[in-house]
Amino acid sequence: MSIIETNTDLADTRASAPIDANDFADLMQSFNDVTSRLEATHASLRDEVASLKGELDETHRRLRRSRQLAALGEMAAGIAHEIRNPLGAIALNLEVLTEDLADRPGELELCGRVSRAVSRLDLIVGDVLSFARDTRVRPDAVRPSEIVVAAVAHAEDLVDAHGIDVDLSIDEEVGLVADASLLEQSLLNLVRNACEAMSDVDGPRRLEITLDGRELRDPDRGVVRHAVFEIRDTGPGIPGEVRERMFNPFFTTRAEGTGLGLAIVHRIVDAHGGRLDVLDAEPGTIMRLSLPIAGVASGDDATAEDEDGRSLEGAVRRRVRDNSGRGAA
Fold first, then answer.
1. From the CA atom positions of the chain, what is the Rg in Å?
2. In the CATH hierarchy, which fold is given to the domain comprising 12-133?
3. Domain ranges, ordered by start, for the chain
4. Is the overall model pTM greater than 0.90, yes or no?
5. Residue 102 and residue 57: Cα distance in Å, rounded?
6. Of 266, 274, 256, whose CA–CA distance to 176 is shortest?
7. 3 state SS of 310
């Protein structure tokens, strides 16, 4: 019994002994280390949440734009057809009138002005139908490097007219599943826009086009590998108020043009499951076109394809519907 009491007294003495200064320093250091790790983890989680929130907001913004473009496409097609019919009648009657006024130069000049106006309207209607028509997307394995070269070659008139230096930086190893003709049309529109943006620049006029593969987050499939095209110009840049509206159909800052070029590009990119971003450069602007290398993910809508390929209009609407349903879940 006395032995037990002695051991208890010894344990109490050890428990009540003061903590050594070195032990206390070690304890505080451990506490500070744990606190620092918790703060770092908290900051990392906060940044990740902010990043995901930004991506979600961007996805919703793109979804709204896709819905607007799909609805405007249907409306534009109806209006364009209604205009083209009477326009054809005007052109036909004007041709007859021109023949009757062959001996009256003054009246012929007036007929010529009307004819030029009719031709101008017909071009506008053609652009509207090009934007609105239900184009077929024919995805296939393509070499995007060759499509970049072809797009630059077709813009050679503007490159030469404005004295622009072209610099290509292309990763030849990047492959892609896409519609070659539609992708070329998209790149050509972006290249021509970049060339026209530099038409009034007094300094160096340089067009830089890069192509490489990158891992990017896709709203449908998570992080997947993309083929990324960047078209950079040395123009004056794009003001914020213009950037908010530049993809709207019929919006343009030029004296001529229908303002449908970027809207068409956006529809094509969206139908391929990609994204189109506008970035500031010093100087100028970067247009970044990113497409998933494996192509558009196939799902329950695969049966909607036919022997002529996937409908661009249908692809856009399916993506809008799928994203809408995913967001509502």
1. 31
2. Helix Hairpins (1.10.287)
3. 12-133, 137-328
4. no
5. 63
6. 274
7. strand
Q: How far apart are CA 34 and CA 222, in angstroms?
A: 33
Cα angle 280, 151, 66; round to 5: 60
273 φ/ψ sector (left φ>0, alpha ψ -120 to 50, else beta): left
Q: How would DSSP label each residue in 10-75? A: HHHHHHTSPPPHHHHHHHHHHHHHHHHHHHHHHHHHHHHHHHHHHHHHHHHHHHHHHHHHHHHHHH
φ and ψ at residue 296, rounded to 5 degrees? -70, 135
**pLDDT tens digit string along 212-247?**
999 987 766 778 899 999 999 999 888 888 887 887
The interaxial angle of helices 261-271 and 180-197, nearest 10 deg, is: 140
Cα–Cα dist 23/101, whole Å: 110
pLDDT digits (tens, 9 = 90+) for 161-198: 999 999 999 999 999 999 999 999 999 999 999 999 89
Q: Which amino acid is at 19?
A: I
Average pLDDT over residues 290-299: 73
Q: How many residues does the chain have?
A: 329
- Rounded Cα–Cα distance for residues 97 and 112 (Å): 11
CA 110 distance to own-chain centroid: 45
**What would the two tokens of residue 57 be?**
């907001």
Residue for token digits 């799928």?
322
Cα–Cα distance measured from residue 130 to residue 260, given in angstroms and rounded to the nearest whole number: 9
Give the residue from 201, 217, 196, 202 showing the smallest Cα distance to 275: 217
Q: Which fold has domain 137-328?
A: Heat Shock Protein 90 (3.30.565)
